[in-house]
Amino acid sequence: MKKLICIILCLCTLLAFVGCKEDSNLSGKISNKVDFKLHKHKEIWLDNSHIEKIELKTDENGRKAIIFTATAKGKEILFNKSSENIGAILSLSADEYLIDSPTIMEPIEDGIFTFMQKYSDMRYVFNYLTGEEDIMKGVNPPDYLISEQDAKEKVLTATGISANDATKVVINLIIDDDYFGWKYTVSFTAKGGKYRVEVNAYNGAILNFE
Question: Are 94 and 110 in contact, with CB atoms under 8 Å apart?
């Protein structure tokens, strides 16, 4: 299944990602299995062939970002097009699915753009873009997720079911297929019915209710 990567592309972040831990940095190329595009409406500015490399970098606070470096041709295109389209909204997509719609804040001179998103696991996104065979390689839940108990309470509140009525409760923490971030799946039986609820593991929002 092709996946929607919900990420925020920060085109205005043009300088190097400073204060990074060397052992947390990775570098690679976008896989030819991923159809990457940066475009305005249907006008494609950059595709896989215009990206020299992508890097995963982690700062001293543990925040991860993926940095794109364009080829010489890509750099030229990006500077010319961004200079002509200040204030315009772009689309970043992979495999024909929208990734994000950033606004150009200023000309992009060095061919470098960065994205980071607290609701997506950046290592997982990096693995996906580079075609890593083991998509979960190096991927670990961050320590700022809500707890299983919090997720369960969110679900019970949303369903209006008391803790005493919920039986056979099973809670799993997994990566969501749509936004590449962590979620809990909470399954249980209550009042003769079976429930399965998905909860955003970062903020407790209910994602899906069955």
Answer: no
